[in-house]
Amino acid sequence: MSIRYNERSWAIDVISEINLLCSRMGRAVRRAGGESTLKNEGGVLFPDVLLFGDDSRIVQGWELKMPDTPITDNELLNNAERKARLLGLNSFLVWNVTNAALYVLEQASGRFLPVRHWEITIRNREEVINRWREWRQLLERIIADINDFLEIGTIFSANFHEVFDRNTIVDVILGHKQGVGELLRRTAGANATTRAEINNWWRLCHSEYFIDEPDQWNALAKVNLLQWLNRLLFAQWMKRFFTAAREIDRITPGTNVEEASLIISNITRQCDFLNIFQPMICSQVLTDAAWQELTELNAFLTDIRLENVSQDILQNILEKVVYSARRELVGQYATPSILADLLVNMTVDDWGDDVIDPCCGTGTIAKAIFDNKRRYLESSAMALASTWASDKFTFPLHIANIALADPEAVGEPTRLFQADALELSPEQTITIINPGDGSPMDIILPEFPCIISNLPFVPFEIARDANPNLFGVNDFLSHAEGKEVALAGKSDLYAYVALAVWRLLAPGGRLGIITSNSWLGTDWGEKYRSILKRFYKIKTVLVSGCGRWFNNADVVTTITVLERRLTPCLPAADETTAFAVLKQPLDALKNEEIKGEIADTLVLRKQLVNDNLSIIVRQHGDIERLEELGLEWPALFADLEWLNDVAPHLVPTRDYFVINRGERRGWDPMFYPESGHGIEPQYLRPVLKTPRSITGLIASPDATAFCCSRHIGELAANGHLGALTWIRRFEQGVNKTGKPLAEVLARSGYHWYEMRDDTTADLVAFMNYDERIFIAKLRERSFVNQRLIRLTRRSQDVDTELCHALLNSILGIFYIEAMGFGRGLAALDLSSNKLSSGFRMLDPVVITAAQRQQILNDFAPLLTRRVLPALAEIDQADRIRFDSTVLAAYGLERYYDSIKRAFCNLYRIRRTVKQ
């Protein structure tokens, strides 16, 4: 036989034979691939042979050897298993001509186990080419058996894009970051021009990467690796539109990086997408290992026929690439395309208008704008010319460029640019790229009739450090109002951006934004709302009533549609806001009819309740009255008509109780000692430390606290060595950031080790309610920890027992739910400030002694059992009897169903993120 007939030659013949067999069989296995990878000594990423099913689904990978390598060889099996896991497959096959073995993943153990073996009598390399009929007959049996296994479900296939969903390919490619980074450093060290270019790039872009990539060489390595990955993906997809793009298939494991760059340049010259293919600095400086895997990936993309997928799937893959590398660094999460389309249709008035997304990330919203414009305007070029997008960071803009790529608009520049949304204003000159020759083009920003964006989810702690221009927004607000105006110091970044873009928006223009829901119920959110409604009319606020919109972030989100006022002013009393709840999951909106109906209904802003939506339209004057009753904006999504009649019977709970947070000292190991501490009894106090120990309406201390107000010298003089030794134990200690405890625990008027026990409580509430909602009464007045909110009666005249009952009535738990807002994990965020200012209760002094006794009698059974999750709790027979008795005492029994319904609706909205 020819000496050139080796594993690669045989594998290519195997692939050809499989394709001939599949063309005749018409079963689950449709074709085979892998030739491109085999052109350079086999691949390290992908199998020698890939089997495909319908729609390029990957069925299985094979590893092939000659007879002198046994199929039990550890390296062979380990490679085959690694590649199967990389592709998300539950099987692989190894074959050395003589023997073949099929391995299938056992779910229980997570191990690949052999399930089928085949054998023929070919024993050496020389016989492989001469006895080809024998191995071909075996191949036919193998393919038939694999089809059987597929059809009965033993083997399953995988969509190729699931490989990117799991980030495994991206992680493998980025695994070369440090090697490429070191090569970049050495290259720059040998060339002053290269060094200067990289240093200048880093000066401009370091803020984008410094948190997770403080090293400029690794940062540039990551960017270049990802850009190569993106170029390969996009060029493969472009084959569906341009014959010239088929040149990308020439980049195989035998191609060097210089040759590949020329191929990309040729594709660019003929297809006019230089804004996408334009190389980064030193893009050809790659290690051999990194380049090998990139070329293998390109061969794989050729095999799976990427050009046959939709642009939406391509963008989804590219977003996974970017966000897996970038994570939550700057608080940007890829917007689900269905949500983007809903937002765009809720917001845009005239599709011919210029529309911009100033925090575009990878361009999902910009693409939704563009796609909708194409449906209504005469040409794709017109749609692209009025679609604008920008982002503070360059990293995702490459993907946004791809999202807006349209072969029907070749030559039309994409109005995509890098800028900080906090600094944008009309008449500003910005620079975009000419797609034909890559030259910069200067254009002037217009006033935009419409701005739409998913604003970054960045909390104030990070926002201040990452955005030095943040507080310039307060200067702008003050100038616009003619008086000093400032957002609260703890405001999230999106609050600044929403107000900053007011100056970019045309008078009467619309702003549609996705943000977290924190502005609805926080202390800083109250200040933000007061400013927001002077600069904008708040037209619609939409929340989810059926699951989280962002599965990759523990953030609960809202859509808000605003209309710019000509000049800042207070809203008119009859100005309206629609509070809407989407009752369908996002997936239901894949149905165009349902999505269209929902979008149209939201645009019309009419009050209604149906299977898709609940919309309550409130006048500004009504909103203010509800706020005066202590309710936060999350409560405004429920029907509250009944509250007008109930309100005269309510009083602030703070009239009877001091409401504050429990004792806060900040170092639990010291202040809540474990057993064996040796501290004298006089320095120990029982304390209610954690909400977890409270299971019913009566609570008892669950821990011991160290409370010592004496000077160290006094302790020594009195021989109180237990307390003294305990203090000394922590005297030289440091906290989690390395600061001395004696320094961070110091308080004016306190010893650094002192915690006083005067923050006692009669009743306690939680700062983060979950499923159970109630107020607990301490068996005896006790000291409580900072994790709880204490209610301490103002005088001996307060009827604590009656107040405890009233606060736990259906109206009381409604108020608790209505004063907080739901966090990402469904917990109710509730502060002591909110509880103190807003908590209302039925007035305990207006009922008769007989009514009081009846309430306590019906409350008594609840005191002896565990409190159940809220929706189950309120349906218990003893609870219904108690709630009815309470409301009857005030003549409000006819409102029971309305109060209960409002509570349940708010509770379900908060808890829906668990779905």
Overview in brief:
It contains 35 helices and 30 strands.
Structural commentary:
It contains 35 helices and 30 strands. The chain is an alpha/beta fold. The chain folds into four domains: 7-158, tt1808, chain A (Alpha-Beta Complex), CATH 3.90.1570; 170-326, no CATH class; 337-628, Vaccinia Virus protein VP39 (Rossmann fold), CATH 3.40.50; 657-662 and 759-914, no CATH class. A hairpin with a 6-residue loop joins strand 10 and strand 11. Helix 9 packs antiparallel against helix 13 (311-326) and helix 14 (337-347) packs parallel to helix 22. The two termini are 64 Å apart. Residues 325-566 form the DNA methylase adenine-specific domain.
How do the helices and strands line up, and which of them pair or pack?
Elements: H1 7-25, E1 31-33, E2 49-52, E3 58-64, H2 74-87, E4 91-95, E5 99-106, E6 111-119, H3 126-130, H4 132-152, H5 161-165, H6 168-174, H7 177-189, H8 192-209, H9 216-238, H10 257-271, H11 274-277, H12 288-304, H13 311-326, H14 337-347, E7 355-357, H15 364-376, H16 380-385, E8 387-391, H17 397-403, E9 415-418, E10 429-433, E11 440-444, E12 448-454, H18 460-466, H19 472-481, H20 493-500, E13 505-516, H21 523-535, E14 536-544, E15 557-564, E16 576-582, H22 592-604, E17 608-609, E18 613-619, H23 620-628, H24 643-646, E19 650-652, E20 657-661, H25 668-671, E21 684-688, E22 698-699, E23 703-706, H26 712-717, H27 721-731, H28 741-744, E24 760-766, E25 768-769, E26 776-784, E27 788-793, H29 800-807, H30 810-819, E28 821-822, E29 828-829, H31 832-838, E30 840-842, H32 849-863, H33 870-873, H34 877-889, H35 896-911
Parallel strand pairs: 3-4, 7-8, 7-12, 8-9, 12-13, 14-16, 21-26, 22-26
Antiparallel strand pairs: 1-2, 2-3, 4-5, 5-6, 10-11, 13-15, 14-15, 16-18, 17-18, 19-30, 20-27, 21-23, 24-26, 24-27, 25-29, 28-29
